[in-house]
């Protein structure tokens, strides 16, 4: 049994558990009340706020506790954008932000605002000069994650913060994935985070709004948390969250070295032992515990289930594992292969043996999934029309279109082209990615009666 | 040590504590994930939803878990009003709703909507015919609490629901105070509640949206909880909340009888042993555990502190205990005395001895506070001008204006009037209430250079 999905949620840290139990007894009352149970709750809340501020590197009165990281992001973006409404209605995000940031951006657009989505390079990072180029006189707010949740790539937050500061635009940093590892570098204005990513209980987010940042909370008024997070606070969980943050920080430096070695091992070994694999994300500037790779000709869901049967819990950005049947927006923005995608995110304390066992079973599991999918189609998929080969993969889901392409590619003469007809959203990403991996030319996409035709030229 | 403020927050029920511990181990993973930890979390979540639905009396797919009762109310009102935007932009609330409902109404007004606030009678209840009279063709939503949080009065929900149903208007019931005692009667459309009121942990609210109710969630999109409550769910707390609801419901019938006897004892004994006291709220149609009274010539905060020193934790709707220095909007809407206000809300399991001890010490504590306040002012407060007495209580806070009125009232001839100059918001409520208690005539309010002049005529 090995849980390798810490980037989704981490099990409760033992220190958090202890703190939760203690504060369930001491911190259940309403901290605004004047009697002793209320005063005791208030003292716990104040102490938690001080400790959180110290871990973030800010003032205690800049910290707001919210019910989740998503609430912190939603309230932070809405409040900061409204606070600068007179400056303008332009918002900047990177194209690989967490969905809660992108959903906020969509809501902002629906409300009449304009959004620039800054692209990323193939490693998943924004380029500071490109980000800076998106700043406009009417930019109300800029958002950038500290590190990506799907591929682990760290963003150049300090450089972007400097550009934003020079332009007088506040920068909101979504630090959900990194705050357990250390404070966020640079001169940012707002910060959001989520306790269950660092071993705190669910139900606690952090929103930090630096003094001097214009902020107009949206939605119905409420007196709690400086009017920035409505509802009765979840004090026992807040106390536990902060205790956990302090505890993981104490272990962070040593554990980062250890996990970095383990993920480096996965990066290297997977590339060597699994054929047709693309390891994605920045090899250097990345979080210690996350490593992500995509396997050509593999169904992500089938691989997840195969890993689950062997006792490994991982997640995937493949289209077949999402409710909308579209590949992860992060992989799309990076332009990397999305089929057979696996994200391994190791929780602190992961045993080396578990990683070794994972590396031992993975090649066989990938081969098994490929074998199942590789069975020849009942009807011939490719027909020669005029001068070009056409692969009809309509109605077939990822990774079948790429498998069918690969199967006929040997029949294409060098210089010849093949058209893959597909109505699967993942093909738009995976066929170009296959070309890049195989050194073939991706010519482009043509409209078709159903779906699209993806044109590939054989160059070698 | 006796905690008598269950209407604010109840300590964690032992069953909730057990359930929380168990589900911290079993339910920390993301329930949308496909691996075993995720599937286990999903099973816990599904079971909790079924159990919550059974306790509410609705379908499981009508239940949404939110981060607090306040979130349930905010999202419920915003979503239901937006869902019926084409019908109109009129909202009905009672004037004694919880502040989170009234804050939603204010946000709705700020957004261009119209709000009718239905008044209550002196017992704190709306009159069904009056509520029905507020329904209009453009009414998008009506809101009514099941029972009042400050005075315990139950509202005629079934009758109001029937009127709303006849008019085709959905009714949202804020059941925060009553859901632990039993399901809400009548044919309502939406329901909101808060787990920490029934001994569940903080961090869990319930929003129920009946099938067929038009509902358009507001704010950024999110896939979780049918798109009606964004953010990673607080599953361990949800499991604990539902376990607690089931547990308190099993004990509810017997405990209601016991607490009702205790609060009846407080109602009767306080009226007998404390001079110049007004016991407020409906004597019959009320929650089992809440009893509220106001003491003339008493500073609410001083009385709270005196009770706290004796080991009793209660709350107050007096102006001096609020951050805004205004009396509770509930007491104002009822038109009852707000000075020296005490709300006693007994948690299930309250010991009879504690109530007896409270009743033993209360008269002495009230007398003590009155003695402190009753010391004569250093300058004469009343001067005879023309034909009427004027009491200058400018700059004096509740309960001093009423004390000064009482001190000079003996000098007023029958048929004569006295003007109390006051800039304290509480005087507007407490001077008429004093007249009602004393059988004197409250003539009305006159504008004054500072504050207002409250005119009282001596009739006996």
Automatic annotation (TrEMBL), chains A, B:
**Cofactor(s) annotated in UniProt:** pyridoxal 5'-phosphate
Supply the InterPro entries for this chain: Aminotrans_V_dom (IPR000192), Cysteine_dSase (IPR016454), PyrdxlP-dep_Trfase (IPR015424), PyrdxlP-dep_Trfase_major (IPR015421), PyrdxlP-dep_Trfase_small (IPR015422), TusA-like (IPR001455), TusA-like_sf (IPR036868)
**UPF0033 domain spans which residues?**
391-415
Q: Which domain of life is it from?
A: Bacteria
Any one Pfam family here would be: TusA
What reaction gets catalysed by this protein? Answer: (sulfur carrier)-H + L-cysteine = (sulfur carrier)-SH + L-alanine
**A GO molecular-function annotation:** metal ion binding
What keyword terms does UniProt attach to this protein?
Answer: Aminotransferase, Iron, Iron-sulfur, Metal-binding, Pyridoxal phosphate, Transferase
Q: Which family does it belong to?
A: Belongs to the class-V pyridoxal-phosphate-dependent aminotransferase family. NifS/IscS subfamily.
Q: What is this protein called?
A: Aminotransferase class V-fold PLP-dependent enzyme
Q: Which organism is it from?
A: Streptomyces galbus
């Amino acid at each position: 049994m090995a849980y390798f999905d810490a980037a989704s949620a981490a099990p409760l840290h033992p220190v958090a558990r202890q703190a939760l139990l203690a504060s369930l007894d001491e911190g259940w009352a309403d901290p605004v009340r004047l009697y002793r149970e209320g005063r005791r709750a208030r003292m716990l809340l104040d102490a938690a706020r001080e400790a959180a501020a110290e871990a973030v590197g800010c003032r205690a009165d800049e910290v707001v506790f919210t019910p989740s990281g998503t609430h912190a992001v939603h309230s932070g973006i809405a409040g900061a954008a409204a606070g600068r409404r007179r400056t303008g209605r332009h918002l900047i995000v990177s194209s690989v932000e967490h969905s809660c940031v992108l959903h906020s951006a969509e809501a902002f657009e629906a409300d009449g605002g304009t959004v620039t989505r800054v692209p990323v390079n193939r490693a998943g990072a924004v380029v500071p000069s490109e980000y800076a180029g998106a700043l406009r006189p009417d930019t109300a707010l800029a958002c950038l994650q500290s590190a990506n949740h799907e591929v682990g790539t760290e963003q150049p937050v300090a450089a972007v913060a400097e550009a934003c500061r020079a332009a007088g635009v506040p920068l909101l940093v979504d630090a959900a994935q990194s705050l357990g590892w250390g404070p966020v570098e640079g001169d940012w204005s707002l910060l959001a985070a989520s306790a269950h990513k660092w071993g705190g209980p669910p139900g606690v987010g952090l929103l930090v709004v630096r003094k001097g940042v214009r902020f107009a909370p949206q939605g119905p008024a409420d007196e709690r948390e400086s009017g920035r997070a409505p509802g009765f606070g979840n004090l026992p969980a807040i106390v536990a969250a902060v205790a956990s943050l302090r505890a993981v920080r104490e272990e962070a430096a040593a554990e980062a070295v250890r996990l970095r070695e383990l993920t480096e091992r996965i990066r290297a070994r997977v590339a060597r032992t699994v054929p047709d694999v693309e390891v994605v994300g920045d090899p250097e500037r990345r979080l210690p515990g996350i490593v992500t790779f995509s396997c050509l000709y593999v169904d992500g869901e089938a691989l997840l289930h195969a890993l689950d049967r062997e006792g490994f819990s991982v997640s995937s950005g493949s289209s077949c594992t999402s409710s909308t049947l579209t590949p992860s927006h992060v992989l799309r923005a990076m332009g990397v292969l999305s089929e057979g995608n696996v994200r391994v995110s190791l929780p602190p304390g992961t045993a080396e043996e578990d990683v070794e066992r994972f590396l031992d079973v993975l090649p066989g599991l990938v081969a098994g999934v490929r074998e199942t999918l590789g069975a020849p189609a009942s009807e011939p998929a490719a027909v020669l029309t005029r001068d070009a080969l056409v692969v009809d993969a309509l109605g077939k889901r990822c990774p079948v279109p790429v498998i069918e392409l690969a199967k006929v590619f040997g029949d294409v003469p060098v210089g010849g082209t093949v058209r893959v007809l597909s109505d699967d959203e993942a093909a738009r990403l995976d066929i170009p990615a296959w070309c890049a991996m195989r050194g073939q030319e991706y010519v482009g996409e043509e409209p078709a009666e159903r779906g699209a035709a993806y044109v590939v030229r054989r160059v070698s």
